[in-house]
Amino acid sequence: MEQYNQFITNTSLPLIILVAIWTLFWKGYALWTASKNDHKKWFIAILIFNTVGILEIIYIFKFAKKSWADVKEVMTMSISSKK
User: Distance between terminal CA atoms of the chain?
Assistant: First the structure.
C-alpha cells in the first residue's frame, strides 16, 4: 500500500504542475482579452469559475473571435521575452 501511495504521489505532482501551467496561461490570456474588449461579465465568470481552461478557450475563440495565430503569437512572445 505504501508503494502505491508513493507511486500516486510521484506521478500526480508533475500532472498537477502541468495542469496548473495550462490553466494559468488560458485564464491569464482570457482575462486580459476580456478586459481589453470590455466584457465585464465574461471577466467575472472567467475569474470565478475554475474549468481547467475550457471556459477560457471557449471565450477566446468563440466570443472574442481570436484565431489560433493570435494565441500562438502571445505564446511565442511570452517565451521569447524570457530569453
Answer: 45
